[in-house]
Amino acid sequence: MESKVSEGGLNVTLTIRLLMHGKEVGSIIGKKGETVKKMREESGARINISEGNCPERIVTITGPTDAIFKAFAMIAYKFEEDITNSMSNSTATSKPPVTLRLVVPASQCGSLIGKGGSKIKEIRESTGAQVQVAGDMLPNSTERAVTISGTPDAIIQCVKQICVVMLEVQSVTKRSPPKGATIPYRPKPASTPVIFAGGQAYTIQGQYAIPHPDQLTKLHQLAMQQTPFTPLGQTTPAFPGEKLPLHSSEEAQNLMGQSSGLDASPPASTHELTIPNDLIGCIIGRQGTKINEIRQMSGAQIKIANATEGSSERQITITGTPANISLAQYLINASSADPDPHGRNTFTA
User: Which CDD domains match (predicted)?
Assistant: First the structure.
């Protein structure tokens, strides 16, 4: 069976999942989806990429073993091409290896490691690839990351041997299924900070600041017309749709810190909101981080009344200019967990 699988001749359907960073996913998808379309057509495997604005994405490859091997070969060679291209603009002399991360149920990792590490040692020696099985499970799942590094050819041979182990585990588990269902790993969206520059709101995505939805930008512009605002250093305004380069996440944090210059204000008015108790935690945030962020961004003073015994609601008092108050209200609503589109979770003034 092993020889047949390693030659890609066994017509058994397998599903293998990969964990990739956003940049790697972009490389696999290609311009207008052309690269992934070509991979699907030429390999015969089904290649699905998880949705969502997450730093990590799951790439699922399903098909007969020979189709899976072809898909992996195309991915490995694409990553090597990316490394080669990046080195042309780099002073580095040694070429880094291609690296892929598989997501494997923890129940299968024991077979992959083998008694005393014998199986994983055998795979390393016979393929020339580096294989590491993570000690901890991925967050909120019963799966582990298995990292494979090496040349594309070494990676392909390594994946073939891992497929053999998975097929053997499958045949065993049919006779005696493992206790408890596998909980698959699902990457969570990153909580992206919001910064303001040149009258435009931006969210941080990787090395760029991407323009934030128009509503928040307009509210911020209104607030800034009525409130002195500390300039954001050397940051230049960007046109809608243009990416604003950021040198590091530290720079983004510095920009966030400078937005606290909303201290002087013209004659203020006061507005009150009634918030359900079960949503107040989303607005306050851990150790008050979220409410402090809303105060800094909006320039408004925000006070949350103490809980009253027997009441299911809390009072929030917002003080500032009309624009400050509007921006604060917007940010408070945005902080709540999935506001109900029919108004059941919206706040009453």
Answer: KH-I_PCBP3_rpt2 (cd22519), KH-I_PCBP3_rpt3 (cd22522)
Strand 143-150 with 130-133, pairing? antiparallel
Which tokens belong to 27? 């490389």
C-beta separation of 345 from 274 below 8 A: no
Residue type, position 88, single letter: S
The pLDDT of residue 146 is 94
Distance from C-alpha of 248 to C-alpha of 251, rounded to nearest angstrom: 5
The tokens for 232 are 């954001």
User: What are the φ and ψ backbone dihedral angles of 309, each rounded to 5 degrees?
Assistant: -60, 130
Q: Which two tokens stand for residue 234?
A: 């050397």
* Helix, strand or coil, per DSSP, at residue 212: coil
With a CB cutoff of 8 Å and minimum separation 6, the contacts of 343 are: none
Alpha-carbon dihedral 169, 173, 179, 185, rounded to 10 degrees = 50
Q: What are phi and psi of 245, to 5 degrees?
A: -65, 140
Listed residue (195, 206, 242) closest to 54, CA to CA: 206
**Structure confidence at residue 281 (pLDDT):** 83
208-246 burial code (b ≥16 CB/10 A, e <16)? ebbbbeeebbbbbebbbebbebeebeebeebeeeeebeb
Identify which of 58, 61, 71, 55 has the alpha carbon closest to the alpha carbon of residue 184. 58
**Tokens of residue 82, six digits:** 């990316």
- Mean pLDDT of the 260-289 span: 72
- CA dist., res. 234 & res. 231, Å (int): 8
CA distance 133 to 85: 29
* Residue 34 CB neighbours (<10 A): 10
What is Dmax (Cα atoms) for the chain?
A: 81
CA gap 45, 42 in Å, rounded: 8
DSSP code, position 348: B
Q: Nearest-5° angle of CA 6, CA 122, CA 150?
A: 75
Q: What is the DSSP-derived secondary structure letter of residue 189?
A: P
What is the gyration radius of the CA atoms in the chain, in angstroms?
26
Q: Determine the Cα–Cα distance for residues 70 and 102; give it in Å rounded to an integer.
A: 16
- Check residue 141 and report its DSSP letter: S
